[in-house]
Amino acid sequence: MPAGNLYLVPVPIGNLRDITLRALEILQKVEIIAAEDTRNTRSLLSHYQIKSSRLISLHKYNEKKRIPEILELLEQGKDIAVVSDAGSPGISDPASLLVQEAIDHQINIIPLPGATAIIPALTASGFSTESFLFLGFLPLTTKHRKEKLTLIKNSIHTVILYEAPHRIKRTLTELSEYIDNRRICLAREITKIYEEFIRGNIQDIITNFNIKEKGEFVIVIEGNKRSEGIDRTEINQYIEELLGQGLSSKTIAQMVANRFRISANSAYSMVLKLKGGNL
């Protein structure tokens, strides 16, 4: 008997209409659905009047223990669909370990395209989409968290993060210490009624916006432009214009950092250098 197929089926991230016809067909026909939360999946199946297949749980706390059972069912010829609570299984959700084991056992993997929060947040951010770095949720341990924050600091690519509502303010504060005042886009409640995009320099967002700690967040961070080269002549001319207006060094540095997207420290050093030369 040939082994069954393992389907990776994306489900809506909010709006239930964001599911493909093919995904509904697969959920209708498979014998078993491995769900991150069986209660949520039952609600989805009920909404589309899909007769409930056998549901088993597959979440981050039981994935390792569940894998042998799922592999055995697949080898018995049963088709299995994997779904997460929202979006695509395996993207910051259970399934990646199962997929690795299934490949080792020569099981046919069939991934379906579909809903994910990454692409809508990226395309609506206004930042470069030519290359991007997706890092999921930041680690909670201090050492690994600092490593990721340093990676973000130095990345020339647009960076995308996920964050839970109760950690969003802490994460933004920590990010600001690493990326100076680069631009970010906060996407919240994507595809839902209260969908919201907040765009601007990170310091302005922290200071001026009342960020609702509700709904999952996607943080899109503009890439570090410093490595692409700085036109120091243009920056110096701009600084000299501002010095002529009698503005403080700190104010000028912040204006330079915002305009040319360089670090506040670098801008301040350039201001002091020119100011000293003009004395």
From TrEMBL:
EC main group: transferase
EC number: 2.1.1.198
Keyword Transferase: yes
Keywords assigned: Methyltransferase, Transferase
Protein name stated in the entry: 16S rRNA (Cytidine(1402)-2'-O)-methyltransferase
Organism: Candidatus Syntrophosphaera thermopropionivorans
